[in-house]
Design goal:
single chain, 206 residues, alpha/beta, six-stranded parallel sheet, two-stranded parallel ribbon, 8 strands, globular
Amino acid sequence: MFIEQPAVFLRWLYPTAIWRMSRKKKVVYLTFDDGPIPEATPFVLDTLDRFGVKATFFMVGDNVRKHPDIYRMVVERGHRVGNHTFNHIGGFRHSSEEYLENADKANRLLHTNLFRPPHGWMRLLQFKLLRKHYRIIMWDLVTRDYSKRVTAEDVVNNVKRYARNGSIITFHDSLKSIDKLQTALPEALQWLKDQGYAFKVIENRE
């Protein structure tokens, strides 16, 4: 559970970040990190279309540079876009100046007010500076679809076990995830619909 749902101390560390949306409504917010890439993102988009679901994609700027057609496909299909830095860099390995410049470089392509730090970590100064310009979006549930230690069935079971009202659910449209997503994403979407959940995107501003 420490991995699938964020520990309390992390929520305390970044108290003004968004970890979960309103608990009052049976709504979940699907997010996809690390794309866009041709091997995964089109499948995700087609699956979301099939279920009539919109999601929020936290994109790596360099992937947008390399695959602008897929970026446009995401936007044209009515999904939201968020910033995941230009090179998927970790905040603790870079100075605040380098980290913010990397995020700014990505945003020259993305044009969004949403930001999610790669790996879910950044220096407190980086967090304080970024929140002046972005809505910092974390997660309530990470499916672990990227892990070699889990199967597609495990991914679905993580959704079944931890999804709740207001959950921000994180998948990845990445090479590490796509083999599992081909089975897990449609099964997870069907289960969420069967439980009566509605789906929303994360807006740039509330």
